[in-house]
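Example record for the data management plan.
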Amino acid sequence: MNVSVCKSDYTCSQLLTELEVGLLDYVEIQSTPSGYLEFRIGESAIAQWLTCLNQPIASLFVSADPHSSFLTAHSQPAKRSHLSLFSIQHAHARCCSLLRLATQQEMIRLNWLEDASQWQWAQPNPIPWLTGQQLRTCTVAERQLISQCFTVWDELPWQADTLAKNSQPLSLYPSRITILAQGLAQAFYATHQQCQIWGALENEGSDRLIAHLALILVTQKLLYGLLRIELGVVAPEEL
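Corresponding structural encoding:
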């Protein structure tokens, strides 16, 4: 995977210190003649990044102060289609159902199962993302879902670990948050249709199935954060 970043006031040393140290072994950084930095991200780096997203939801999202100047200026709620919201909520509920069923059948173990906002991956540990140096989640639909998770995460300016001390997190327009959530939900539906857990995936071996379920948990966390924390609507666990 290649990612280009526009030149800025960052020095290389500043940029590297802000990256997860464990990821740097699998990331090649090159400068281009046009002044951009090109990142060649190995699949081992993607696997570590996905593992990092299996953190409590509260650590991934930070809600902005409702009295901030940005939110005051844009305080009128965006008109959102009930149909589009329902499709996002349905995707979240489906993620929850799949994860609960997998837990009941002892394929995986999650902590805090009684509250979907607190779910954390417990077992097996570590998550078997890789076979050799390649991701097990290798179908076109799964790749697109991972890409959509990247897109959502890249646009979260309110991430807790990027905030300076005592600084106010920024926010996105509700319409943009809805678009991000729709894209993530659609990518999940495509993956769910192509990768049947109690079908072809089950026949590919337990590690393949576990990696797929871990990707569903990452998706659930991001959908929950977008729905409940950022849009302020219900993120149902079942429908």
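Summary line stored alongside the record: Confidence is low (pLDDT under 50) at residues 2-19, 64-78, 158-163.
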